[in-house]
Amino acid sequence: MTWFEWTMLTGLSIIWGGSFFFIALSAKELPSFTIVFLRVALASLMLWPVLMLFGKKFPRDKEIWKMFFTIGLINNVIPFSLITWGQHHIASGLASILNATTPFFTLLLAHFLTREERISKNRLSGLVIGFFGVVLIVGLDFAEEASVNNLAQLAVLGAAFLYGLAIVYGRRFNSMGINPIIAATGQLTASTMILFPIVLLVESPWDLPFPSHVTWFAIFGLGALSTALAFILYYRVLATAGAVNISLVTFLIPVSAIVLGVLFLNERLEIKHFTGMAIIWVGLAIIDGRFFKFLNS
Questions:
Q1: What was the pLDDT predicted at 243?
Q2: Is the pTM here over 0.85, yes or no?
Q3: What is the 8-class DSSP label of residue 249?
């Protein structure tokens, strides 16, 4: 990759790492569904003018809209809600580490759901190593101590699983020739439509105290930066550097999330969390393969 592509990739990791920081700030005053609704609604409102600016025509086909609602559910509504609920109980840095397991789930799901992506011996070893990293973080006594903290960690892992499923399912948009920004706008718009009645029925936002300016800042950062801008930047890097190179962002996201959590939220992670993250990184490096090819060259 060029230095410009590396800069965009680093910027994307900071923006996505910042999402955990913004969620932690907004979770102090707002419930989970309300945060997620504001996030996707703001992002979709910002992406619609981008579509118009580039003269993109939005599809009206019912089958495509069914896909928008499906991908919106498994890529936005449920995982965003799981992570946001989880961060009401665990540190943002820990959530980002657990979220870094997404490539493991993607690899596993692609093996069973597609014919093209099969797990090789090297990738299987990376998958097993990464699993041990997760076990170290969550703890061997998980089944015995079903605390809210453990359930929150499981929720974030569930979100990572759904992200992996969404990546595999999202390939349909490419095969159908749907523009990436149209796909992003469609799924965020569908997510907004799904969440609107849920927020009204479950959380009654009109009964909540009016949020502080810090919370509104966090919501803006979450919707405008970590969702709308992140989608645009993601597809820009994907177009120039390719899918393999953009997977490197998985290594970088926890770094920015942990730094922001330590500097501004007074979070402190345990040694087992950093050790588990290192093991997960080793597993990801084995799956990626480039580091070991570099050593052997």
A1: 60
A2: yes
A3: H
